[in-house]
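Please, structure for the following, as tokens.
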Amino acid sequence: MSPILVLALSFMILLIIGVPISFCLAISAMLTTWQMGLPPVMVAQRIAAGVQSFPLIAIPLFVLAGSIMAKGGVAKRIVDFAYIIVGPFRGGLAMVNCLESMFFGGVSGSAIADISSTGPIMIPMMEEKGYDRGFSTALTVASAVQGIIIPPSHNMVIFAMSAGGVSVARLFLAGYIPGIMIGVGLMITSYIIALKNDYPREKRPPLRESLKIIFDGLLSILSAFIIVGGIAFGIFTATEASAVAVLYASFLAIFVYKEIKFKDLWPLAIESVKTIACVLFLIGSASAFGWVITYLKIPTIVTNFFLGLTNNPVLIFLLINLLLLFLGMVMDVAPLIVIVTPVLLPVVQTLGMSAETFGIVLLVNLGIGLTTPPVGAGLFTGCAVGKITMEEAAKSAFAFWPSMIIVLLLVTFIPWLTMFLPNLIG
């Protein structure tokens, strides 16, 4: 049997029978290595080598910073801040939901953290004001997609490692404009739906209270500018920035907002360790899987396959987007990043797309996948928070997919949208 067939079949069978994705990658890599007559110990060596990367330290620290911010009152301050800005518009609370996700994504770097932290605040608040629960939940899930695109995002760090050393700083900068575009697109959609359903406007609090809210909100949002600005201007590396994020989040939560105490940091750290242990094993297994893919020259085969279908880059990019959208519907973000990056990156680079642009295109595709059944992790989390069925949430989420797909196409075919800031700041 062909080694490629062994790799593909073993992976798919293990995935179908419910084996965790990390073990699917490692076992299929080991079976293929054994079938080729190579020492199986090479797989273990590749797993170890995959996690022996200094920049990977940024991932657990960003995860910890996001946990501290989620529990430390940052989410509530950002919701209140967004309320001051867009609350008075028609459907103001819906637009608050979009804007707070834009801000919270810039401090937590996680879509799931956004849904878990702000969903319990926004969904009951919107329902109390007359918004449909399905609409409120679907909007919370869709707007949280900004969390993996607007930096700092630990998924961007995973992509940078999978792509073979792409600059994390340039990748962070590349995500700002597309992330903001998704937020604006969702706000426009929400406004149209609000006009149709006659959703209410909101009143701003008195001036003194508004100023206090703005000050607290700016303190929360400042962390994103410290982190990304520090990386972009060479003040510190991405790994050092993640440590700064933890310190700043702890300072806000303990001394400024006083929502948690020192003793609460330890449980948050333990929770983050459990999360990152899974992520690091996934990265190591994917490293072994990627090594087998490269050894079998699968990237070259895939490149020749797409170029054999057509020489038109537009059609190839559309086909790749369709493939990623489908994969995003059935798999989670991190595993897909480490699986498809070594396969598809050579294809798009052959056609002139930069690694940074492909990284953002990939994340937008997989972000949309978070909002779709049957395996959208964001949709599952939103349904749990909103206490509705997936069918209800998916039906309402359909209204938000067109604006997100428009942004995806714009990012795919207009490189300026992703490369302007990286090239400007250098």
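The mean pLDDT is 83. The radius of gyration is 22 Å.
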